[in-house]
Design a protein that fits this description.
By secondary structure, the chain is an alpha/beta fold. The chain has a domain of about 80 residues. It is about 30% helix and about 10% strand. It has 5 helices and 4 strands, in the order βαβαβααβα. A 4-stranded parallel beta sheet has the order 2-1-3-4. Strand 1, helix 1 and strand 2 form a beta-alpha-beta unit. Helix 1 crosses helix 5. The longest helix has 14 residues. It is globular and about 50 Å long. About 20% of the residues are buried.
Length: about 140
């Protein structure tokens, strides 16, 4: 069976990933050097998948720095072992999913995320637009 390993960098995405992948081994990482964090794993162990909690916002904000580090890690023998499950999701989507999963709590009156997190505009009122129909005269 494939061993699942979740990198826990303290972000909401890593907490959500650990919850979604129940039974996965959670490894707390320190610092921002991805290559150094991968030294604790054996690259010859092919039956492991290492899940990184980077969202599209994280990848865009660092201007390919994270991509370059992932490429370095893969060149060290971790090719086909690194998984980016949230690569196509932005931070706002991850926060919504974290609220649904019970990781983040939302104040029902104000719609704000508790514990000092950023408001994700959950209770914005929706707008209905009526369009005119073509009537024959």
């Amino acid at each position: 069976m494939t061993e699942k390993i979740v990198f826990d960098n303290g972000s909401i995405a890593s907490k959500l990933l650990a919850k979604e992948l129940e039974g996965a081994k959670v490894v707390k990482v320190t610092g921002s050097d991805l290559v150094q964090n991968f030294t604790q794993f054996d690259s010859k162990k092919q039956d492991q998948r290492i899940y990184l909690p980077f969202t599209s916002d994280d990848l865009v904000a660092n201007n390919a720095q994270i991509r370059d580090e992932i490429t370095k890690v893969e060149s060290l023998g971790f090719r086909n072992q690194v998984v980016l499950p949230y690569e196509g999701n932005d931070n706002k989507t991850i926060k919504y999913r974290a609220v649904d999963a019970g990781i983040l709590k939302v104040d029902k009156n104000t719609g704000e995320i508790l514990k000092g997190e950023v408001n994700i505009d959950q209770n914005k009122p929706s707008t209905t637009v009526k369009t005119a129909t073509n009537k024959e005269v």
